[in-house]
Design brief:
mainly alpha, globular
């Protein structure tokens, strides 16, 4: 059961990355935090290259790297905009919609079709998102859904979840045409290189300010890098769906951290909603 320890560490680091990103957004804009996430992850990822074999790379790898990397630059910035705009406890659970969207994108991109459990998982994710704002029910049956759509953070994170359902398939192509660990490292390095001109053009801060204030921004990249390392380690020990299901419990942790560290309200309904959504993720991944 060693894989379960690494999968749980993946979920913990993922949630802590969100906490420190949210805190960092009080000092810097979303472009600089997105840059910090990629920059400070490299010291934890690049040393891996000394311990793995460099695989032979074909054109499919490079296409996946450029297309997936380019999309993830935009996604990373969008993610930061989302958690900056709204509470963690109502924004982060939206990432559990990714498996739902994968039911649409996977058949198209990689020809994978879900089993019967996938349908039940869809209902649980949708129902869980409804429960996130169940207190709005008094304003009408659809009020909880309307509240999510009106809230900028969840709305942006829903777009992130959809885009991730596309890039997840691209990640698979990249890893299949190299190796899982090499893909993680090269992908992170590519994202960092792409983020440099973006931050110069869009951010109001200077990169030197981030480097000089590294103590505040290091945890963002550190926990991002550790998430990747723990996830890949867990995947090598068991089936991918098991690891991803455990990883998605980070949504529950983010709800707890949001209420604990940022004094966000509605703990009970948001925690219940997140748990139901994760149950849906489990059914979809197992399908």
């Amino acid at each position: 059961m060693s894989w379960l320890v690494f999968a749980a560490l993946t979920a913990l680091c993922e949630s802590l990355k969100d906490v420190f990103s949210k805190r960092g957004l009080k000092q810097a804009d979303e472009y600089m935090i997105a840059f910090a996430l990629r920059f400070f992850a490299l010291p934890f990822l690049l040393p891996i290259l000394f311990f793995i074999d460099i695989p032979a790379l074909n054109w499919k790898f490079w296409v996946a790297l450029v297309v997936g990397g380019g999309m993830n630059v935009f996604i990373t910035i969008l993610y930061m905009k989302a958690i900056k705009a709204s509470d963690l406890s109502i924004t982060v659970p939206m990432v559990t919609f990714t498996p739902l969207f994968l039911l649409i994108t996977s058949p198209i991109i990689v020809g994978e079709f879900p089993g019967g459990l996938g349908i039940a998982g869809i209902f649980l994710i949708v129902f869980g998102s409804y429960m996130l704002n169940i207190s709005k029910r008094k304003h009408g049956f659809l009020a909880p859904f309307k509240a999510l759509v009106k809230e900028k953070g969840p709305r942006l994170m829903l777009l992130v979840a959809f885009l991730w359902s596309i890039t997840a398939n691209i990640d698979k192509v990249g890893a299949q045409n190299s190796s899982a660990m090499f893909w993680v490292v090269s992908f992170s390095l590519f994202l960092f290189v792409c983020m440099v001109p973006v931050v110069f053009l869009k951010s109001k801060m200077r990169i030197s300010q981030v480097i000089s204030g590294w103590r505040s921004f290091l945890p963002v990249g550190m926990f991002s890098g550790l998430t990747s390392i723990f996830q890949i380690t867990a995947i090598t020990m068991t089936l991918v769906p098991y690891v991803i299901s455990v990883k998605r419990t980070s949504a529950v942790l983010s709800v707890l951290w949001g209420c604990l560290f940022f004094r966000e309200k509605g703990l009970k309904e948001r925690l219940l909603g997140a748990v139901i959504m994760i149950a849906g993720v489990v059914l979809i991944t197992l399908s």
